[in-house]
Amino acid sequence: MAFINSLLGKIFGNKSDRDIKEVTPVIEKIKVEYNRIVQLSNDGLREESDKIKSIIDERIKPEEDEIAQLKIEGEEADIQASEKIYAKIDKLEEKIIEKLEEVLEEVLPAAFAIVKETARRFVENENVEVTARDYDRNLAATRNSIIINGDKAIWKNRWLAGGNEIVWNMVHYDVQLIGGIVLHRGNIAEMATGEGKTLVATLPVFLNALARRGVHIVTVNDYLSKRDAEWMGPIYEFHGLTVDCIDKHQPNSEARRKAYNADITFGTNNEFGFDYLRDNMSINPEDLVQRKHHYAIVDEVDSVLVDDARTPLIISGPVPKGENQQFEELKGFVEKLYKAQRELVNQIFIDAKKLLSKENATSEEKKEGGLLLLRAYKGLPKNKSIIKYLSEEGMKALLQKTENFYMQENNKNMHLVTDPLYFIIEEKQNSVELTDFGIEYISKNLDDKEFFVLPDMGGKMADLEHSGLSPEELIEAKDKLLQDYAVKSERVHTINQLFKAYTMFEKDVEYVIIDNKVKIVDEQTGRIMEGRRYSDGLHQAIEAKENVKVEAATQTFATITLQNYFRMYHKLAGMTGTAETEAGEFWDIYKLEVVVIPTNRPIIRKDHEDLVYKTKREKYNAVIDEIVQLNNAGRPVLVGTTSVEISELLSRMLKIKGIKHNVLNAKLHAREAEIVAEAGQSGTVTIATNMAGRGTDIKLTEAVRKAGGLAIIGTERHDSRRVDRQLRGRAGRQGDPGSSQFYVSLEDDLMRLFGSGRISGIMDKLGLKEGEVIQHSMISKSIERAQQKVEENNFGIRKRLLEYDDVMNSQREVIYKKRRHALFGERLEVDLLNMMYDSVEELVNEYHGSDNFEDFNMEVLRLLSIESPVNADDFKRMNAAEVTDAVFEKMIAAYNRKVEAISKQAYPVIRDVFETKGQMYNNIVVPISDGKRVYQIICNLEKAYKNKGKELVKSYQKQIVLRTIDEAWKEELREMDDLKQSVQNASYEQKDPLLIYKFESFNLFKAMVATVNKEVVSTLMKGYIPTQNPDHIREAEARKKLDLSRFKTQKSEMPGADNPMEGANTQTQERAKPQPVTVEKQVGRNDPCPCGSGKKYKHCHGVGGV
Question: How far is it, in rounded angstroms, from Cα 1074 to Cα 1065?
Fold first, then answer.
């Protein structure tokens, strides 16, 4: 296949060459513009960016003017006409987006040239002098790097970034211009380590920010978002663009809203997602912080959109009886069974070894030995003795041969292997299954022998139907059966999660215990993922296993995965050093194309073929010998590991050899920046996880370059090729020398589960002795094929999880859209019209075709407060659609009269209050009742006075819709959580849980929407003001913000001194070294204001300060 690909590449050219060829004409245009712009003065350079802003504004002005006019008409239009108006507005919005992309492509050469020339001037001049504008003066008030001198503003080329003063020293290479074009066009730019991704982003960010629709730069931790905003910010601010960082401000604050309204907004992936969820829990438009999702560039895009994408961001709160969990009670059963299985497997393994090592064993004895070995492997595949034995000559091949024999004819005879076991572990499927023998063993001291068995609902229901019970007894028996099923399904789910915790999750590999809490270790980076919890009760199961406090269950109030959050952007782009291997996934899920950007200087790093050993012990001894040799040669060594356990083992081995070294793993993250920065010094040995220090360049001294550069040693191949490429990429930046070497053993997880049997077969045939190694390009390619298998498997899992989340996402989009319409009130009347029609349609469909006209008439009266416009004869004669239209027309007429009546009733009182207390009151509270309860409706007094009470009706509509939707959605999320858990039991009945989930969730959502429609319509149709007394109208208190203290997110909101793992959340990359605290300009209140206005600071930019 590789030969065919190579041949096709020669004939048609490879994708990378075609991509570069496509953008080459644009690069030439940028160079032409650059030659023109380089002649301009500093003021002329800024005027050039003003011209581009004007070109963009002029292009979309006709559509924007038309939208503004239509919005005014929409305010005045009746409920039926407004729908057409807003449909027209949507089409105009789409046209604006199309026009923006066209005009941005046209002005791209000039915009990129402006950014490059701005960067050059800051490199070549300590001071850049321009005519002072208002924004120069505003920035000078708080920045030491900008000085106002009369009518001139002086921008220094040094400023604070990440707590340290930096001197600007970067100008864009031509290859970086290619990266900028790729990012602007909404693709992923793959750039090697040290190629300046942060600088590349300045080009498309500047260009798209000129449209003033908001550009988001998404980083993987808050240190990087704050640092990059301060580091790159002045390049944008020099041209009048505003820059901010959401991680500098508290959630739901005015400062965070201002950050989102900036032209360019930096922030972490989690905070962007959480702000979206918080916005959709807000009860006032003033609480919203985000605007439309226009354009985002995601840094380390593979980490965010692949590794983190399937983990949901959840805002949750306490749930009633959340403490009532069964993990502690059922843990004893699992421990007992796990102990019994361990003893059983040890005995089976001893018997297998006896038979297989017996001299002159018969073929039957060998067969029996193979069967016992396979049985032991199925029972405990992670048993270290079994793993070691399988690395011996011929054993892996025997196991595979035996397994293939019993897997024939759809696993027909596999039960002969597994029946004697208590439970079966399928490592590849990440599942544990109890056998009949196991169920019998844990149930033997219980009265109910089916305590851990789910009843066959179909069979039991059929038995009840034919049991001859009376209807009342039958209903009672069915309810009891359903109740029993619910209890048992929860019990079986808990038992399964406990088994997973005991058999598949190892301490110091998948998780660590810190401060008596279970903390997940990121499988890609080895970092602790603060606040993350395994879902579906698995985290509680691990807590029970480790004897730490089992946290109470919580209820989800709002949730979204990063996959679905980032798919909301009109245009999405990303940059990373390792995306090519995941190109298929990026295209399938996000429609993002990966473009490999050439390096500025050729890579001269030597990547050696993998060294393959039989056992881990041999492999680690070889690694230590290589480290000692490299250390003696004066070369720095970076050793990549895949777990805390391995890094600590290698550390102990190096201590015995007397080699000084640094260790960086999930337990030791506080010194990450310091350790990574020292990793390039002569003779330094650093043991780290494969992706440690991502985003930080390891810089080499001249002596190290002469010695051969940084040596990378991988102690194991990771499941994912891009993680290995990331480790390799630590060496060889910007033409530096270096080398990389991976060490592999047949006992490694990747080789055990997915490695080709041919490798172990070759080693057996060669008769390799202990400590001997094989190295060949064919072996390395075979290992890469094993990695591809895992990547395909993982992609399948992610895609399936996305399908589950897509079900929830389609519901979320409908609800959040209705909620936003209610919050702003703009399109609320269109939504109400649809709610009214749907309610009537459902009501008619429920009764039409039966003789129950009286019941139908009563229901119309009860829900809609009108009499049916059709009589009994018409009800029978007309079809359902005609009846629906007749009822709907009458209801609309009745509702319009209701709106008019409330407005007329309220207006005299509102006029009286406005004329007597209008100076004192801003908002007022008016009581409105539906006959059951009284709602305190808050509305703007001045607006209600000007439009003669109509504002009151609008406020009533808003608050009723919001209240009803929020209550129903909270309940829907709870039911969806329960459903997702319960459908997993469908696999026991040979059914696809996903199909059942889709079907049941659709029914749940349909029922929820119908309930919301009925409640809203019924309440609005019955509304009236129960008082005419002006004294009952009072001033509204200040609008309350949503109380977020009851809710928790998966990530610490504001890490501080009490959180020693600050910044280790998700993907911490670079931490600043301890430095003296550096602060921006401090101005005395009575000193002259630095903006040059001549006023005292307290009367100018210091107004409101203390």
Answer: 19
Our CA dihedral for 396, 397, 399, 405, rounded to 10 degrees, sits at 160
d(CA 466, CA 723): 61
User: 162: phi > 0 → left, psi -120 to 50 → alpha, else beta; which?
Assistant: left
The neighbour count for residue 809, using CB atoms within 10 Å, is: 19
Q: How many CB atoms lie within 10 A of CB 509?
A: 18
Q: Which residues contact 17 (CB under 8 A, 6 or more apart)?
A: none
Distance from C-alpha of 860 to C-alpha of 867, rounded to nearest angstrom: 6
Per-residue pLDDT reduced to its tens digit, 109-134: 999 999 999 999 999 999 999 999 99
Q: Tell me the β-bridge partners of 738.
A: 710
For 300-359, write each residue's pLDDT tens digit: 888 888 877 777 788 876 655 444 567 888 888 888 888 998 899 999 999 888 888 888
Q: What is the DSSP code (8-state) at residue 597?
A: P
pLDDT at 1069 over 60: no
Cα–Cα distance between 292 and 3 in angstroms, integer?
A: 48
Main-chain dihedrals φ then ψ at residue 609, nearest 5 degrees:
-65, 155
φ, ψ of residue 166 in degrees (nearest 5): -115, 155
Q: Cα separation of 922 and 245, whole Å?
A: 33
Whether the CB-CB separation of 865 and 1022 falls below 8 Å is answered with: yes
Q: pTM to 2 decimals?
A: 0.73
The secondary structure element, H or E, covering residue 884 is helix 880-917
1074, 555 Cβ separation under 8 angstroms: no
Give the Cα separation of 377 and 374 in Å (integer): 5
pLDDT surpasses 60 at 517: yes
DSSP 545-578: HTTS--PPPEEEEEEEEHHHHHTTSSEEEEEESS
Q: How far apart are CA 699 and CA 732, in angstroms?
A: 10
What's residue 1052's pLDDT?
30
Residues sharing a CB contact under 8 Å with residue 321, sequence separation 6 or more, in sequence order: none
Hey, how many other C-beta atoms are within 10 angstroms of the C-beta on 516? 10
Q: Environment class of residue 258 by beta-carbon count within 10 Å: exposed (0-12), middle (13-18) or buried (19+)? A: middle
Closest CA to 983 of 813, 808, 804: 804
Q: Note the pLDDT of residue 523.
A: 62
Question: pLDDT tens digit string along 861-872?
Answer: 888 888 888 888
Tell me if 442 sits within 8 A of 338, measured CB to CB. Answer: no
Residues whose CB falls within 8 Å of the CB of residue 865, separated by 6 or more in sequence, listed in order: 894, 1021, 1022
- Number of Cβ atoms within 10 Å of the Cβ of 128: 18
Please tell me what DSSP assigns to residue 988: G
Q: Are 118 and 238 in contact (CB under 8 A)?
A: yes
The tens digit of pLDDT for each residue in 615-652 reads 888 888 999 999 999 888 889 998 888 777 788 888 88
Could you tell me where the beta strands, DSSP code E, fall in 505-645? 511-514, 517-520, 554-561, 571-576, 594-596, 606-607, 611-613, 637-641
The proportion of the chain whose per-residue pLDDT surpasses 70, expressed as a percent, equals 84
Residue pair 388/399 in contact by the 8 Å Cβ criterion: no
Q: CA–CA separation, 649 vs 184, rounded Å?
A: 46
On the CB side of 537, CA atoms within 13 Å amount to 23
* β 243-245/606-607 pair status: unpaired
Residue with tokens 């969730």: 1001
pLDDT digits (tens, 9 = 90+) for 695-740: 566 778 888 888 888 888 988 887 777 777 778 877 777 778 888 8
At 521-570, the pLDDT tens digits run 766 556 676 667 777 778 888 888 888 888 776 667 888 888 889 989 99
- Evaluated on CA atoms 40, 45, 47, 48, the torsion sign reads positive
**Are the beta carbons of 592 and 188 closer than 8 angstroms?**
yes
Q: What is the pLDDT of residue 1032?
A: 60
Residues 6+ apart with CB under 8 A from 792: none
